[in-house]
Amino acid sequence: MKFRIFLICLLNAFILNANMASPVQEGTLGTRPFLSQYVHILHENLRITIDKNFQYADFDIEYIINAEKDGNQIPLLFYASDYYENFEVYIDGKKITLQKQEDFWDLYGDDKEKLTNFHYLYNADRKEVGEIENNFQYGRSDRISLNDFLYFETDISTGKHSIKVSYRASNWRFKHNRLNEDSFRYALAPAKYWKSFGTLDVTIDATKVQDNIAINLGTPKSGEINGIANYHFDKMPLEIIQITRMPKLSSYTKFLLNLESFWLAIILMSLIVIFHVWRMYLYRKKYPKKKFSSPAFIGAVLIPFLFIFMLILTTLWIDAAIGEPYASGRESYGAFFQFLYLPKYLGIYVLFSIIVDFIFKKIHGKKS
After folding, report:
1. Mean pLDDT of 321-345
2. What are the CA-CA distances from residue 288 to residues 157, 280, 362 (Å)?
């Protein structure tokens, strides 16, 4: 049950299907392996090397393990979802062949169950892992797919061994606002199910990255965050390591972002509104007795439409100022929905035009 809760929390938080309306474009969720009950991790070396465009990162991990049992077995179970390329595993310097989960979750029974040593995968009576399967085997929108697990069987002796894992990962992209939040992630959370936790060394190489980055591991023990940062831990520091790109923005772009497209549109439209009020004034000065004002009527209908187009224009303007790859485009996408507010804008401005025209009519009516 603990394992089931962990999988639900992990995937609900970090795996979402990306589409036009979604604020998330999922990348690679790197994660520690799930361990057999006969394997201990004594030490872990994690090195993450990020490319200059912050699009991909190479993960190189070494696990120093201690095996309590010899013979043919599955020592580690990898959650391997959406790796960009080159997922490779070496044990004691020898490359091994990985097997993708296809049917071993259905191989129940003491005589053929391959996952007997992963006791936390089972329900309370240890008869099946069906409860997990039923919840997670369909789709990946909010559940782990069992097809995302990789494993290997090997004949290992008791004692220490070195297992090296390498792969290339793609970044995560969050589009919660105007700016893309790009990040790489590595889950330490599976260590909750390890018998023991050894030491952890983390090296993050961002020397090629053109932008500043932020790392949620705090101040490095040596090096610098925007270069090569080194960390050492004797316990699990957090559940998810996250490396985030910090966009470089000009003062002009920051000014536009602080102003926002709505108020920028208001400022630009104020010039048109002033011109409209001036035309209404001149009309009433010349025709104070007429019942209706044509400038008031035309402006009352036309200006709300112009305001919506101005909102779209200013939104595209700000996105262009932000530029690639930082602009998310979500505001531009949402700006076209401003037409849904047309009745509101129309009602407000019609009322404004009626009041202003009434005032001018009274003023010039007295003079005549």
Report:
1. 81
2. 103, 11, 8
Predicted TM-score of the model (pTM): 0.71
Distances (CA, A) of 324 to 53, 56, 179, 249: 11, 17, 10, 11
* Per-residue pLDDT, 193: 66
The answer to whether the CB of 236 falls within 8 A of the CB of 306 is: no
Alpha-carbon span 146 to 100, nearest angstrom: 10
Q: Could you tell me the two tokens for 273?
A: 């509104």
Q: Residue 129: is its pLDDT beyond 70?
A: no
Q: What is the pLDDT of residue 135?
A: 34
Residue 30 Ramachandran class (φ > 0 left, ψ -120 to 50 alpha, else beta): beta
Q: Domains of the chain, with CATH numbers?
A: 2-246 (2.60.40), 251-367 (no CATH)
- Helices 342-367 and 251-286: angle between axes, nearest 10 degrees: 40
Residue 367 φ then ψ, to 5°: -70, -30
Q: Which residues contact 206 (CB under 8 A, 6 or more apart)?
A: 50, 213, 225, 226, 227, 228, 229, 243
Q: Is 183 left (phi over 0), alpha (psi -120 to 50) or beta?
A: beta
